[in-house]
Amino acid sequence: MLFNSLQFFVFFVVVLVLFYLGPRAWRRWVLLLASYFFYMSWNAKFVALLLTLTAIDYTAALWIERSEGTRRKRFLVLSLAANLGFLGFFKYYNFLAENLVSLLDLRPHMFALSIILPLGISFHTFQSMSYVIDVYRGEQKAIRNPVDYALFIAFFPQLVAGPIVRAREFFGNLFHWEAPTSEEQLRGVLLMFLGLTKKIALADRFSPIADSYFRNAAGHAGAMSAWTGAIAFALQIFFDFSGYTDMAIGMALLLGFHFPVNFRRPYLAFSITDFWHRWHISLSRWLRDYLYIPLGGNRHGNLQTYRNLMLTMLLGGLWHGASWNFAIWGAYHGALLSLERIAGRKRFQDPPAWWLYPFRAIATFVLVTVGWVFFRAATFADTRYIIGQMFGGVSGPGDIVIPIWLLVLVAMSLLLAVAEEKWEGIERLARAPAWAYATALILLLVSVEMIGVTEQQIPFVYFQF
Amino acid sequence: MRVVRILSASLLGFLLFDVLIFHSRLYLSVVSPDSSTGYLETFLRNEKLRIGRGGDQVLAVGDSRMMFFTRYANELTPETGYTFATISTAGTTPRCWYYMLRDIDPAADRYGAVVVPVDDYDDGEIAEDLSNRLLDLHYLIGVLRLSDLDEFAGSMHSVQNRVESARGILLNGLVYKADFQDLLLHPIARVQSAALNRRDSASWMYSYIGPSRTMEGVSIDWAARTLTVPADVTPAQKAEFTYRFLAPRPADMGHQSAYLKYWLGKISDRYRGSKTRVIIIRIPRGPFIRPDQPPVNPQSSVRELASRSNVIVNPEHFFDELERPRFFMDQMHLNWAGSLEFTRTLARQVRQLLGPPPANGSH
């Protein structure tokens, strides 16, 4: 059941009706059962995995809170081992097995297993681990009610692709739940349709273009083809993921939950440092708080800082998927972040002068787009070929693989993003006069109707992670 | 309450947009003449603008195989007494023909007869399940009404196509989407081509003559199941010929029969009690007739309809003489010579079947 399907909208309306019209005491149960139903609609068998991890972390947190000294650490390690063990098995087993086979020159695929990656495992394990670590650090009280904890892990708006919500944010909302104000309701609806528009009117339009280019890059030789093919993916992944996130935040808002912002116009970033403050913010925050800072952060001199940055980004890359391409993508960003630090941290954290901003933003977008080639290409050989074409393709300029009308749409989106950066229009619309809000919503609905890919449902890119 | 009011107003505004632009037929004035919708709309508009009403008017429906050139049929009007028109549109199906007839003849009183072609009189199964053909929605979107939602969407076999049809009938913009995007790309060229089509298409269509190439030189060894073609036939064409003549016939699942009984029945029902006759003909099937023709089916759609007083079934083998390679341009379409022969023969046969037209052309 994809967010961009009619079935999901029907499901969500039913959940809203049951949530608000049912007795107040049932509300958590309504959300929990709806969440499990949502998860099971993809693959019912894996609900056992979700329940197991939920039970382990729920119990581990209680034990950590009740214990002292090394026992606390033991329970923490047990919980982390369980999470990373499941994640490692489902996500990385075949990758490690294949590399081992290749290293030892054994028969190909001799250790390979046919493993289906459970939906959203990277997201809910990270969320769960952060909770147990927070309890261990004393920053979060262990949750007594298993229903509350199970809901934290399985809450359907963010179960499969985030945002990765911190326990204190979620439980703060749950324990002090307040009905959304009319302004929040309007914002929630607007975000849902903004997300839907981003997904089906933009991301799904770029999806076949990027797929076609990356499936057969050699068939589209030339620098122009390579750049526009890579840009098509850059736009697809942004509109896809931020569209999903907008819908998740909007839905949560309608249910009275406030999720953190996950995207803040990342392609307007003026540096790679700024990019990571704007792209998948909840993951960046998680990596910072649970990996980069525990590794020492920037507290032990420059070399250690660069090492920590590289390690954090490398693991962040591998979090996305089990392939060397993701590792290289992470390392590439780690290297760029380190280079920016070497060149002067302040210069890349504070916005440049207004006249310099567009150039810096374009340069950042170019660097990010090059990075997306590592992320999207199926093999390292493909990556090398495409990057080679981008920087001095010998087969002539090639074609612009993106149709002009889509480029016009992107230009309009860019203008809207610049306006949003300056005036936060989406925030204001919920408070604006009714006619302004209604006009915006009508425009979104018309975009979905007239531009959206409604003939088929294209899954969200991040569902595979 | 404020939220409900604003959201309701937004939803209404959105629906109003769809109604004003698409349901109002405003968009049809700029729809691409080359699109399925635009192509069908061209035929319907030209026929609506054509002057002529009464018992002496005969209308042909059909798909691209109904090579009925009204210009040559009408040259025989002094002999037959009838004036012929056609809305035969390539790619359409009996389901489309029903809605097309309803659109151009809402009171079911404009014609003396409507000629409806079929492949055979035995409801032979075909590879495509016509009832599940979503393309019909794209042809018909300009003529479908909200009240058709239940019947049209319900007539699709798969749930997915039912949902898509229902969605399209409710929100026409979803169906016009590709055309609309193309309009955004070339607005001026589109407006010009739509205007040109409105002005001249009737005369283009009336003057059209089909290609003169023939299927002579193609031969089939039915026993060895091999097909030989002349050197100028492309591999793709040969593949099409082979599929048409030598591919195994689909097993009879009863789909085609049920489909034809429903939609030919609907066409016949439209004219039940009126003075319009429905004439069913077996179209010239092809340059070669496969030996494995469907078995005689006494309960077929056509044979059942034959008992109705407003239905006339043309003798089954009436056009057999045209089923020769020299009359066909490909595996199923008549060429210029075949079309001319077919048109004239059919015009005279209509006169034969209906008798002389009523005096003054009235019913």
Protein model, in words:
The complex is a heterodimer of chains A (465) and B (363). Chain A has 19 helices and no strands. Chain A has 465 residues and is mainly α. Chain A folds into 2 domains: 6-177, no CATH class; 183-270 and 351-464, no CATH class. Chain A is globular, with a radius of gyration of 23 Å. Chain B is an alpha/beta fold. Chain B has one domain (31-361). In chain B, the strands form 2 sheets. A 5-stranded parallel sheet of chain B has the order 2-1-3-6-7. In chain B, strands 4-5 form a two-stranded antiparallel sheet. In chain B, α13 links the parallel β6 (277-282) and β7. In chain B, α9 packs across α10 (187-207). The N and C termini of chain B lie far apart (60 Å). Classes of the chains: A mainly alpha (465), B alpha/beta (363).
How much is the radius of gyration of chain A in Å? 23 Å
How many domains make up the 3D coordinates of chain A? 2
Q: Name the quaternary structure.
A: heterodimer
Tell me, briefly, the overall form of chain A.
globular
Question: First CA to last CA of chain A: what distance?
Answer: 17 Å
Number of strands of chain A: 0
Major β-sheet profile of chain A:
none
Runs of chain A with pLDDT <50, length 5+? none
Question: What's the number of helices of chain A?
Answer: 19
Strand content of chain B: 5-15%
Distance between the termini of chain B: 60 Å
Helix content of chain B: 40-55%
Q: Would you tell me the overall average pLDDT of chain B?
A: 92
Give the class of chain B from helix and strand content and strand pairing: alpha/beta
- Total discrete domains of chain B: 1
List the total number of helices of chain B: 14
Query: Could you tell me which chain pair has the largest interface and how many residues each side has?
Result: A-B, 21 and 24 residues
Helicity range of chain A:
over 70%
Strand order of the largest sheet of chain B: 2-1-3-6-7
| Strands of chain B, count | 7
